[in-house]
Each structure stands twice: as C-alpha cells, then as structure tokens.
Amino acid sequence: MKLSLLSKYRTYIMGAAMIWVMWFHSLFTGKTDVFHFIHDIGFYGVDMFLMVSGLGLYFSMRKSKNALDFYKKRAIRILPAYLIVVLAWYLFFKTDVSTGDKILSILGINYFRGTVYSIPERFDWFIPTLLLFYLLVPLYDKLFQKATVKWKFTCLACLISPILCIVTYHTHMQPLYGSIVRIPIFLIGYNIGWFLYEKKEEQKGSWMVYIPLMTVGLIAGYYFQNVICGAVPNTVWGINAYPATFVAPGISILIALFVMFAHKYLKIVGKIITLPFYICGRYSLEIYLIHQRLMTVVNGDSAVQLRNAVISKVGLGGYYFAIALATVAVAAALHELVALVTRLIQGKGRKKPENTEEKKEAETTDTEATVNAGSAAV
C-alpha cells in the first residue's frame, strides 16, 4: 500500500464520503447501535472531502502559473454550480427572505456573521469555508515551501485551530466551529499532497500508522457523540468533528485499498461494485449542494401525503434511497451542463497555435481545464 493510492482513487474516496454525508442527512439510522453511531458521525465525510481537497490543491498550486490562475481554476469549478443552486433556492423555495439577506447569504458573508445569539439567514456553511481555504492557500503555500521540515510546520500550523476555537468561544462565534475544526485535516491533506508530488520515499508499511489513529479517533468520536454533546451541546457542537482529523486519513486509506483490490481481483465485478463511489465522487459538489435542499423540500409540510405514501410502500430506508438517486440524477445533469458551457466559453475566441510548442501548450491547457471542470474539487 502506497499513499499514492489516495491520489489515484481520490474520486472514489470522495464518492464514499458523499454517500456517508447523504446518509447523515437522512433520518434512517438503522436498527443497531453500531449503525446508529456510524450514521451520527456521517459529517466526518466532510473531513474526508477536505483532506483529499488539500491533497489535490497542492498539485494544483504547482501547475498554476500564479495565484490568480489558481483562483480562476477554483472559481470555475465551484461558483457556476453553487450560484445556479443558490439562486434557484431563493427564487423558488425561500422567497420570504429579504433581498439583503439573500445577497449576503449568496456571498457567504452571513455565515461568518453568526453568533450563538443571532444566526442570520444563510444558504450554506461549507462553500464559504471552502472558498476561504482556497483564498488562503497561496499565502500558506509560500510559508510551507520555506519550511525545512514540512510535517513539523504542518503540526505547528494546525495549532491555529484550537486557538481560533478559544477566540470564537469568548466572542460567541461558536457557529464557526464547524469550519475552524477542519483546518488541521485540510493542512494534513496539503502535506500529503506535497509528499506525493515531490515523490518522497515512503517507508514500507508506514501507512499503517493511520489505522490505530483511526481507532483512537473513533473511540473519541463515540465519547463526544454519546457523552459530551448530550451534556453541553451548545459548547461542543462543531468541536465534535475534531476526532475526524484522526479518522479521515485511515478511512480514506481503507477505501483506496478496497477499490484497488476490487479492481485487481474482481475485475469487471469490482468495477461495477465501486461504480457508485466513482459516480458520487465525480458529481460530489453538485450532490452536496442539492441533496440537503431536496431533503428540506420533500420533508416539508407540503409533501406529507406523498412522503407517507412512499414510506408505506418502500420503508424509511427506501424513501431516503430514492431521494439519493434523484439527487445524483439532478447533480449529474447540472455538472455536465456546467462542464459543457465551461468548455464552450473557454474554447471561444482561442487563437490557433502557430507552432508545435504552442500546440502542445494549448492541448495541456485544454486537458487541465477539462479535468478541473469534470472532476470533483471538494
């Protein structure tokens, strides 16, 4: 097992994380305590997203001409789908929200204005968090490149997370916990990206250290979910994602191993088994944007009769599975539409290469643009 499998099977890992998040969004928890616990920590899928995102962003930084080029690629991947979904949401479903709040919510500003005493209308929390991380990556990369021992610098940089948690607690900005506690896993992913990009020599079996760390994280996660959160929910909600910092790398490695063995030994059957992971990974951004909004609509008062009718026939699990399938279908259509329009816009007005070198450069740019438009960046 090589850590390079995290990069090779990144889409599958993100797909597994997305499936986990969709399950977390549902009310189907299973009948056993184990399934109930796995459901309750489904938000750990977000940490898996941010880890592989940090990994991919290191590669993207190396391939970008400058910070502006880096921002352009990220904006092309995130903003079109985000703006389409958020505009549709406020146009058709949340029409009672004031124009000012709509604008502040779309821009992500409302998320950062929330306190324990007043939480303004906001569309999402993850996209503003992701965009803020993207904004800071070029600056962080400059400091990271100057560090002699990368892993020590990463550990030191991770300390900003608990410091910010203390600051937000005393300023009553606890709603930001969900973003702040994800800083370490994002930086760990960036460090792994550096390790893989620079092709550093990996000691045999070194990946196995993540498995006992994952076990420790799961034990801590169980304690948080079943003991601490129930006692002081307003204080620790959001901080209960810290154990995911230890869990996300180990689970990601296990998923990569599963996909590798499935493809190697089960051949076609293995590819069929892992296909849902790939599909959900490819359309992960759009699925994330659509799923919870769709859940809000179908679980609302206006859909009570339809919901009860479906549940009576297929059960609660079948009901949420149907919602997941509908989400993936709409997400895939949105993704492909945005990718098509993006390719048309990028190709319009492009000058024909005058020589072989220019042609190669243009082909490389086209390929990279297609990958950025066609692969999940979260």
Summarize the structure in short:
The protein has 378 residues and is an all-alpha fold. The protein is built from 18 helices and no strands.
SSE topology sketch:
Blueprint: H1 4-8, H2 10-25, H3 33-40, H4 44-63, H5 67-92, H6 99-106, H7 126-146, H8 150-158, H9 160-170, H10 177-180, H11 183-197, H12 210-231, H13 233-236, H14 244-265, H15 267-282, H16 284-298, H17 304-347, H18 356-374
Could you walk me through the main structural features you see in this protein, from its secondary elements to its overall organization?
It is built from 18 helices and no strands. It is an all-alpha fold. α5 packs parallel to α16, α8 runs antiparallel to α11 and α14 packs antiparallel against α15. The two termini are 24 Å apart. The model is unreliable at 353-378 (pLDDT under 50).
Give me some keywords for this one:
18 helices, mainly alpha, disordered C terminus, 378 residues
N/C terminus separation: 24 Å
The count of β-strands is: 0
**What percentage of the residues does DSSP assign to strands (E)?**
under 5%
**How many domains make up the 3D coordinates?**
1
Number of helices: 18
Main sheet makeup: none
Anisotropy-based shape: globular
Helix content: over 70%
Mean pLDDT: 87
Q: Helices and strands, in N-to-C order? A: HHHHHHHHHHHHHHHHHH
Mind telling me the C-alpha Rg? 21 Å
Low-confidence runs: 353-378
Q: Structural class of the secondary elements?
A: mainly alpha
